[in-house]
Amino acid sequence: MVDGTTDRPPARRPGGRNARVRAQILAATAELVARDGIGGFRYEEVAEYAGVHKTSVYRNWPDREELVVEALLRYAEGLASVADTGDIHRDLSDFLLALAGGLETPFGRTLEQAIQPARQHTTVQALTRILDQRVAAMRGRVDTAVERGELPPVDSSFLGEMISGPVHLIVNRGMRPFTRTDAERIVGVVLAGIRATAPPT
């Protein structure tokens, strides 16, 4: 008791230390996967890279593959969404910029390379699901645009392939950064073509 107050331990915040430790481990895993690829990722390096004890890694993720998948999902959380401002051209342009930004990071390049070979691997299947979720979000925005009359009826999967294909091509070439001008030109050309070829109503 000091000056009428009682010494008490500080209140624990929800999640607290364990949440911070888990976040450190996931971030370290993502960086190691980006550096070494999924095939070269070493489970044993995570604790040292994250600055935590080995038991923290093994207790939270006894399976190496579960750790990799969760790290990939955490990294991709912000990529599977498309804004709805009411302007389909702007929203799709922003989507392409976000897609390019993700692909241009070391981790994004690892994701892109990882889905090319054998898709039977569980981790690769998880990566494929991440990309599928991102594309599905974009398709949902296109379907909303059709319902509102922003676009004529269109196969949203086809539109998604048309606008995202050039992004992968430009980024994978690595010859120059992908810019907003690129995004707006791609979206403009594709939407103009869709509108021009739509059957009369």
What does this structure look like?
Keywords: DNA-binding, Transcription, Transcription regulation. Residues 19-79 form the HTH tetR-type domain. With 201 residues, this protein is mainly alpha-helical. It has helices at 16-40, 46-50, 54-60, 64-76, 88-103, 106-114, 122-148, 156-173, 180-197. It folds into two domains: 16-64, Arc Repressor Mutant, subunit A, CATH 1.10.10.60; 80-197, Tetracycline Repressor, domain 2 (Orthogonal Bundle), CATH 1.10.357.10. The longest helix is centred in the last third of the chain and has 27 residues, at 122-148. The model is unreliable at 1-14 (pLDDT under 50).
Please describe the topology of this protein.
Layout lengths: L15 H25 L5 H5 L3 H7 L3 H13 L11 H16 L2 H9 L7 H27 L7 H18 L6 H18 L4
Helix pairs in contact: 1-4, 1-6, 4-7, 5-7, 5-8, 5-9, 7-8, 8-9
* Coarse shape: elongated
Biggest sheet details: none
CATH class of the largest domain: Mainly Alpha
CATH superfamily of the largest domain: Tetracycline Repressor, domain 2
**Structural domain tally:** 2
Give the SSE string. Answer: HHHHHHHHH
Taking all Cα atoms into account, the compactness measure Rg is 22 Å
- Kindly state the number of beta strands: 0
| CATH topology heading of the largest domain | Tetracycline Repressor, domain 2
Contiguous helical run count: 9
Q: Which percent range fits the helix content?
A: 55-70%
On the 0 to 100 scale, the average pLDDT is 80
End-to-end Cα distance, whole Å, is: 81 Å
